[in-house]
Amino acid sequence: MGLKRTDEFRQDAERIALTSGLTRKQVADDLGVGMSTLNKWITGHRDTNMVSKEDLDLAQENDRLRRENRLLKEEREILKRPPSSLRA
Questions:
Q1: Which interval of the chain is the signal sequence (predicted)?
Q2: Do 25 and 39 meet the contact criterion of CB atoms below 8 Å apart?
């Protein structure tokens, strides 16, 4: 039988999985729990208000900034190329 986790640990794991911007696989690996276990915890508490509005807002802003950063890096790489490589 597996290790019994506390309710506090489960809630923290759910919050991290929903707000960190990491994949659930990464969170599960980092916390040493199975992917299916983490998904079960999240699904079981989907209707509860365990994540504050502020946490959700921060997670959404974090996701937006990551997308923007990725786009800017791609644009910078295009601009770094020599002019001859830009011609098709």
A1: none
A2: no
Q: Higher-confidence residue: 55 or 81? A: 81
Q: In whole angstroms, give the CA distance from residue 65 to residue 76.
A: 16
User: What structural domains and CATH numbers belong to the chain?
Assistant: 7-83 (1.10.10)
pTM of the model: 0.51
17 neighbors 51 (Cβ within 8 angstroms): no
Residues with Cβ within 8 Å of 37's Cβ and at least 6 positions away in sequence, in order, are 2, 28
What are the backbone dihedrals phi and psi of residue 28, each rounded to the nearest 5 degrees, phi first? -60, -45
